């Protein structure tokens, strides 16, 4: 649920983060405050860093008020998401020039995939619609049929056959 934001913040285990595990949650809050949010001065983070204390929930609740989080301590997922959003905003603010001209990884990958990938790479050759399409194409191009439609495509679909078909008005 939080993987993208955790990855953006260089969290050590973005895919495995479990906000329901109490120890992991408390350690995460300390990491987030120490590394990304930095709302408190270093010397004022002691109560939050003492994750084994019985008073930690009170310290966390005070922290939530201090950073103006609109959620209650019981709304853990919403709180984590809100804190991650705050951390991402602060990270961007600290490094705005670095991120100004960057593009999303998905957009880069989509462009590269479109340029480099084989156009038929994701084609399901066992699909009945594909088989019917091959047979229709063979009829259109006047290619002799073969029992194995893949062999027919591979061996019979030549540049000459394509050129002949493109001259036809069909």
From TrEMBL:
* Xref: InterPro entries: RTRAF
Question: So which domain of life are we looking at?
Answer: Eukaryota
Q: Which Pfam families match?
A: RLL
Stated family: Belongs to the RTRAF family.
Name of the molecule in the record: RNA transcription, translation and transport factor protein
Species in which this protein is naturally found: Catharus fuscescens
């Amino acid at each position: 649920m939080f993987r993208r934001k955790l990855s953006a913040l260089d969290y050590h285990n973005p895919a495995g983060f479990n906000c329901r595990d109490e120890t992991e949650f408390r350690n995460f809050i300390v990491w987030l405050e120490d590394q990304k949010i930095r709302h408190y001065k270093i010397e004022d983070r002691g109560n939050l860093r003492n994750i084994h204390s019985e008073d930690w929930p009170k310290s966390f609740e005070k922290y939530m008020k201090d950073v103006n989080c609109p959620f209650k301590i019981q709304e853990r997922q919403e709180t984590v998401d809100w804190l991650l959003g705050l951390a991402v905003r602060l990270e961007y603010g600290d490094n705005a020039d670095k991120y100004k001209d960057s593009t999303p990884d998905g957009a880069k990958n989509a462009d590269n995939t479109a340029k480099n990938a084989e156009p038929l790479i994701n084609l399901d050759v066992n699909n009945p619609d594909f088989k019917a399409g091959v047979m229709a194409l063979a009829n259109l191009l006047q290619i002799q049929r073969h029992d194995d439609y893949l062999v027919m495509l591979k061996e019979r679909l030549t540049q000459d056959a394509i050129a002949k078909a493109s001259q036809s008005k069909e």
